[in-house]
Amino acid sequence: MPSIFSKIISREIPAHIVYEDENTIAFLDINPVNPGHTLVVPKEEAPNILESSPEVVRHLLDVVQKIAPVIVRATESDGCTITANIGEASGQSVFHTHIHIIPRKYGDGHIGWSQLNPSSNELSQTAQKIKEMI
Ligand code: 5GP
């Protein structure tokens, strides 16, 4: 069954499309965090960015790099957050690869995550585990 984003690509359901090429589409998020919040989506379906092919991801990032500064300018923003949720635990709700471009303004209230304060030893152990597995 096609994802909701594939239905947007095939024009089965409407969206406010801001960019499209052969491989990629970008449209406004239906529930934006800030005005101009855009989803950049490969036309080839995969559950998330880690499972899309490297070629697809490269092109996706090219498009993000091209349109994010334009979105920031068009919305008269001060910057943007570029993010991708991977898996339900991260808050992913649509399992078709996508990157969020969220325009940001000073004082918009979308403060970051609460952060831990680990010891140097804890950081070393975590880094070691990751290095061993890469
Ligand atoms: P996720 O939670 O998977 O990282 O992001 C999915 C995003 O897709 C959400 O921010 C949600 O608002 C958006 N979304 C879900 N359904 C639709 C839809 O039908 N149209 C549009 N334009 N955005 C959608």
Structural description of this entry:
The chain has 134 residues and is of the alpha+beta class. It has one domain (4-133): HIT-like (HIT family, subunit A, 2-Layer Sandwich), CATH 3.30.428. The protein is 31% helix and 19% strand. It contains 3 helices and 5 strands; from the N terminus they run H-E-E-E-H-E-E-H. It has helices at residues 4-9, 54-74, 120-133, and strands at residues 17-20, 24-28, 38-42, 79-83, 99-104. Strands 1-2-3-5-4 form a 5-stranded antiparallel β-sheet, with helices on one face. It is globular. The protein binds guanosine-5'-monophosphate (5GP). The site of guanosine-5'-monophosphate has 13 residues, from strand 2.
Task: Please provide the count of β strands.
Answer: 5
Rounded to the nearest angstrom, the distance between the terminal CA atoms is: 34 Å
CATH topology: HIT family, subunit A
Strand line-up across the major sheet = 1-2-3-5-4
How many domains would you count in the coordinates? 1
Give the mean pLDDT.
97
Q: Quaternary arrangement of the chains shown?
A: single chain
Q: Considering the protein shown, what is the CATH homologous superfamily?
A: HIT-like
- Helix content class: 25-40%
Task: Estimate the strand proportion.
Answer: 15-25%
Work out the helix count.
Answer: 3
The largest sheet, given as strand count, sense and whether it forms a barrel, is: 5 strands, antiparallel
Features:
134 residues; HIT family, subunit A; 5 strands
Give a short synopsis of this structure.
With 134 residues, the chain is α+β, with helices and mostly antiparallel strands.
